[in-house]
Amino acid sequence: MTHTDAATEGNEAAALLEHTRSLVDPHLRAAVASLPGSIRRVAMYHFGWQHADGSPAAGGAGKAIRPALVLAATRALGGDPRDAVRAAVAVELAHNFTLLHDDVIDEDRTRRHRATAWAVFGIPDAVIAGDAMLALAQRLLAEDARAVSPRASARLSTCVIELCAGQQADCAFEERGPDEVSLDECLAMATAKTGALLGCACALGALYAGVDEQAVGAMDGFGREAGLAFQLIDDLIGIWGDPAQTGKPVGADLAAHKKSLPVVAALTSGTPAAAELATLYRGAMNTAGEVSRAADAVDRAGGRDWAQVCAADRMARAVHHLSRAVPDLSAAGDLLALAEFVTRRAH
Amino acid sequence: MTHTDAATEGNEAAALLEHTRSLVDPHLRAAVASLPGSIRRVAMYHFGWQHADGSPAAGGAGKAIRPALVLAATRALGGDPRDAVRAAVAVELAHNFTLLHDDVIDEDRTRRHRATAWAVFGIPDAVIAGDAMLALAQRLLAEDARAVSPRASARLSTCVIELCAGQQADCAFEERGPDEVSLDECLAMATAKTGALLGCACALGALYAGVDEQAVGAMDGFGREAGLAFQLIDDLIGIWGDPAQTGKPVGADLAAHKKSLPVVAALTSGTPAAAELATLYRGAMNTAGEVSRAADAVDRAGGRDWAQVCAADRMARAVHHLSRAVPDLSAAGDLLALAEFVTRRAH
């Protein structure tokens, strides 16, 4: 693919995300507006629609990748995306439920260039807002009169349980030593924590297109593998990303001793750089120099290359799943554009 | 009612609760067993089925009042309680989701005579286990092939949002001064925090009996009012209850400066005892003597009597709602026995 093709595809994905937001945002805002006032306040801050004092803010509510996948999946399978808007909103709410709780659990104070909800409103309000957001997601699906809505609801609930398992594993890994987490465990964690919801988004889109369970499962597989590719790239950004883009300090994941995929790949590489990285991970790593040396060690231990190759491999698997559900891939242009977009953010 | 009648009715309710547990527990255990291992461990501890080290424990999973209400509501309306077992399990899971999160939020270290889940496993694991339990409740309803299940799911989700609002209000009240919470606000909070789920339990039971929306709404009203009566009694127990029965230290709610219903009724009574209580509430109240004087002030300010009269009034309203759904109240003996049971626990 030439540079121009890539740029065009990036623009295509950007246009898709923009179009998704125009379809989904009014419904997302209406759903959030239905929450009780004290909870709505936290939710509107979290989505970037209000400042902490309740005054209106221009900020957007994230990239809307998951709702875009829902709608694109419905379209790719011959359905009408308008039928799936409610499901797209539900998936976005479920995603934001995880963000609210993960920020509490991980004690992250910054997200999308702003203070996290718990840092502004306290842990109780952030936990409660997350709970209400999950219940709201479920209510939207339950109130949908379409016959597939119970299946969508069951899939979303199963997915949330998997997200919980992923988050739990992520926390548990932080407690272990630098050489006590295997790459397989780490891949399983990332699949649960990130792949599951992207898979669920695609599966729900497929459900609302009215296809059979096999095609729904294939679409889940597509989203899941694309999600893992996304996570690998996100992990690379967490180490080498531009703070102006990420809204987080440089090397934030390393400073937090996060056992992200490139880090674990490096730690388990058996190279001299792996030992060096393990030593850094056993220490406090609270200077910029140490964080920079850790990033360098991940690179020299092959963690950076491995993550890039693995991301490409997962994308290939994703496309293979997709081709089972959509034999003529030309109908799945939007899905492919979105998948390529999320896995090319780092470049 | 003579003392003998009361004892008989208490036994009747105890037998109902026992029977409910025998119907519901196997399904509750199977549902919990379906959770991923790391989350299941926390859930099994929380339910009292395992010790912290994972060894089996004989402890029971609470009184099963909410599942008993689901099944009794179905029966009272001519349905087969076996159809509603799944809904009963879902309601019990939703209830335990709130317990797990409320204990984190309120920093309560003891429940059912044991250390709370977060005190044993840490805040992240307890928050995650609560999240997964809520999703599991929703999954059970979504996977139920009966035609009413989406309506049940929508009602449970709406109820969870109301529970969240109630818990949020409860926390917010703690931040305010002793004379800055009105009795109306406090009653609204208790309705949301406790009434909503008991109402939802009865409404779900009605749904699974296949009655119309009006009867479902009346059953919701019954459970909601009975729930408020229950909360009033629970608040009295929180002040004057026997620690051996409650598993909490004597006057625990006063020592925690909780603005429970009898306390707010006392604080807003305009009596000399109200001023005395307000002064105690503005202080640390960390000695047994101060806690005892606060309890005495609530009593002299009329908070204790008010709560008892209000509980009786709410029970009368509950029965009025019930009679709209079940004109021949003799068919609703189980529901009435349960309602009387929960509001007589203090005696």
Give the secondary structure arrangement, pairings included.
The structure is a homodimer of 347-residue chains.
Chain A: H1 3-33, H2 37-46, H3 65-76, H4 85-106, E1 110-111, E2 114-115, H5 117-121, H6 123-142, H7 149-175, H8 183-207, H9 213-240, H10 243-246, H11 252-255, H12 261-267, H13 272-282, H14 288-300, H15 303-325, H16 333-342
Antiparallel strand pairs in A: 1-2
Features of the shown structure:
two-stranded antiparallel ribbon; Family 2 encapsulin nanocompartment cargo protein polyprenyl transferase (chains A, B); 73% helix; mainly alpha; Farnesyl Diphosphate Synthase; homodimer; Polyprenyl_synt_CS (chains A, B); 16 helices; Polyprenyl_synt (chains A, B); metal ion binding (chains A, B); 347 residues
Describe the 3D structure.
2 copies of one chain form a homodimer. The first copy, chain A, is mainly alpha-helical. Chain A has 16 helices and 2 strands. Helix content of chain A is 73%, strand content 1%. Chain A has one domain (3-342): Orthogonal Bundle (Farnesyl Diphosphate Synthase), CATH 1.10.600.10. The first copy, chain A, starts with a helix and ends in a 5-residue tail after the last helix. The first copy, chain A, has helices at residues 3-33, 37-46, 65-76, 85-106, 117-121, 123-142, 149-175, 183-207, 213-240, 243-246, 252-255, 261-267, 272-282, 288-300, 303-325, 333-342; strands at 110-111, 114-115. The longest helix of chain A is centred in the N-terminal third of the chain and has 31 residues, at 3-33. Chain A binds chain B through residues 35-36, 38-39, 97, 101, 104-105, 123-125, 127-132, 134-136, 138-139, 141-144, 149-151, 153-154, 156-158, 160-162, 164-165, 167-169, 171-172, and chain B through 35-36, 38-39, 97, 101, 104-105, 123-125, 127-132, 134-136, 138-139, 141-144, 149-151, 153-154, 156-158, 160-162, 164-165, 167-169, 171-172. Chains A, B: It comes from Streptomyces brevispora. Chains A, B: GO terms for molecular function: metal ion binding; prenyltransferase activity. Chains A, B: Keywords: Magnesium, Metal-binding, Transferase.
